[in-house]
Design a protein that fits this description.
The chain is of the alpha+beta class. It has three helices and ten strands, in the order E-H-E-E-E-E-E-E-H-E-E-E-H. It has helices at residues 31-42, 113-122, 160-170, and strands at 21-27, 48-50, 55-60, 63-64, 69-76, 79-86, 103-109, 126-133, 138-144, 147-153. The chain has a ten-stranded mixed beta sheet with strand order 2-5-6-1-7-10-9-8-3-4. Strand 3 (55-60) and strand 4 form a beta hairpin.
């Protein structure tokens, strides 16, 4: 019988665990085609399209980067699907997309991005990118033994995720893109 030397493993942070994973994200070449595929074949929808997100801050590996990104968001049974299409050429987190078109990252909504950043760093993750949108949403992307993880801090009072969850509950499969 083999014993495991637990003294070499990183102990969990003393102040608790990360919030649950709520998002699975994919990089796509054509956002509208991807939305139609997910709606038609995976019954995910309706999607909210957010073209060319306005970032007031964006850094990749500690340096400013141009980050022009469009996304589509929809929920199904407690999981948010994010589809991302990059428009800029500068280095960014999108460079870490799997060649096979698989899952790019998982996302975690957080109410305390600083504490959760510490938890991820303590778990051996390294921050790759940080963004702040014009609406105040802050995101941080990390890489490490868990793959890619995004922390998502939405400003208080932002009802977008809840509205999308409710829209998914009553969606009849028609009109996959919200107006």
């Amino acid at each position: 019988m083999t014993t495991v030397d637990r003294s070499l493993s990183t102990p969990p942070p003393p102040d608790g665990f990360l919030p649950p994973i709520s998002q699975i994200a994919y990089v796509v070449d054509n956002l509208e085609q991807a939305v139609l595929f997910w709606a038609r074949h995976m019954r995910v929808g309706p999607f909210r399209l957010i073209p060319h997100i306005g970032f007031v801050e964006s850094e990749y590996r500690g340096a400013f980067t141009e980050f022009d990104l469009s996304i589509a968001l929809a929920w199904r049974e407690g999981v948010e699907i994010e589809l991302m299409q990059l428009h800029s050429k500068a280095p960014s987190i999108i460079d870490h997309a799997p060649l096979s078109g698989g899952v790019h990252h998982v996302g975690i909504r957080t109410s305390n991005i600083i504490d959760d950043e510490r938890r991820l760093v303590a778990a051996g993750m390294r921050r790759l990118q940080r963004n702040v949108s014009s609406t105040g949403t802050e995101t941080m992307f990390f890489e490490g033994p868990l793959g890619l993880v995004e922390l998502i801090a939405v400003p208080e009072g932002s009802p977008h995720a809840e509205k999308l969850k409710q829209a998914a509950l009553i969606w009849d499969g028609n009109d996959p893109i919200l107006p």
